[in-house]
């Protein structure tokens, strides 16, 4: 046998090892595909006010993205006007709000895609509200309140078509976006509304 020639047994061993590696790779890829989170719709299902963290208030459990599910959430009770308090830090995929959504002090909400508000959203001090785009519709109200000296952050492209009342400091911080205001923005005396980020613009026609 030549020094550079493999024996039949060695060749077979290499072929088996390669086949095993391909099989294991296929199993790993298949496992990764199966493990992808699945979208779930979980809506506010009571006419009563309550807290975000209570699973009984939601049609499919507390909206909170995890390794199993991502959440698309609507808060809309046509025959009532409940107030929902965000009492935890939460991450979801999409949000539509037609009621009163109030952030607890220091609690944060991250929405991976877009937020549509036709109700009222209240930032209550030291909170971060993150989204790809936050549209405060013509019927919507966006309020920023909190203790004296507190501030909040809106990390989203902001389309304000409705009313925005800034009674405490607000930083709007998002890069590569075009903010639009065609509604009203009212900033309380001695409070501050600031914009930051890279390559952003603001069109104000309100």
Q: Notable features of this structure?
A:
globular, 206 residues, seven-stranded parallel sheet, eleven-stranded parallel sheet, 1 helix, mainly beta, single chain
Helix-strand blueprint:
Elements: H1 8-34, E1 38-41, E2 50-51, E3 69-75, E4 83-86, E5 90-92, E6 94-97, E7 100-103, E8 109-117, E9 120-123, E10 128-136, E11 141-144, E12 151-160, E13 163-166, E14 169-173, E15 178-181, E16 184-187, E17 193-196, E18 201-204
Parallel strand pairs: 1-3, 2-4, 3-6, 4-7, 5-8, 6-8, 7-9, 8-10, 9-11, 10-12, 11-13, 12-14, 12-15, 13-16, 14-17, 15-18
What do these coordinates show?
This protein has 206 residues and is mainly beta. It is built from 1 helix and 18 strands. The longest helix has 27 residues, at 8-34. The chain is globular. The model has no long low-confidence stretch (mean pLDDT 89).
């Amino acid at each position: 046998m030549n020094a550079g020639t493999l024996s039949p047994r060695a060749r077979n061993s290499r072929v088996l090892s390669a086949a095993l590696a391909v099989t294991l790779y296929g199993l790993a890829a298949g496992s990764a595909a199966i493990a992808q989170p699945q979208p779930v719709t979980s809506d506010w299902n009571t006419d009563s006010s309550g807290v975000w963290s209570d699973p009984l208030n939601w049609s499919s459990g507390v909206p909170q993205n995890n390794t199993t599910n991502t959440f698309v959430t609507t808060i809309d009770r046509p025959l009532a006007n409940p107030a929902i308090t965000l009492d935890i830090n939460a991450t979801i995929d999409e949000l539509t709000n037609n009621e009163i959504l109030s952030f607890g002090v220091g609690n944060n909400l991250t929405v991976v895609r877009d937020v549509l508000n036709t109700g009222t959203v209240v930032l209550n001090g030291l909170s971060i509200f993150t989204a790809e785009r936050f549209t405060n519709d013509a019927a919507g109200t966006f309020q920023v309140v909190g203790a004296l000296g507190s501030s909040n952050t809106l990390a989203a492209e902001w389309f304000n078509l409705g009313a925005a009342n800034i009674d405490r400091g607000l930083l709007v911080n998002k890069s590569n976006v075009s903010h639009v205001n065609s509604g009203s923005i009212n900033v309380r005396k001695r409070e501050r509304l600031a914009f930051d980020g890279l390559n952003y613009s603001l069109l104000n026609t309100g």
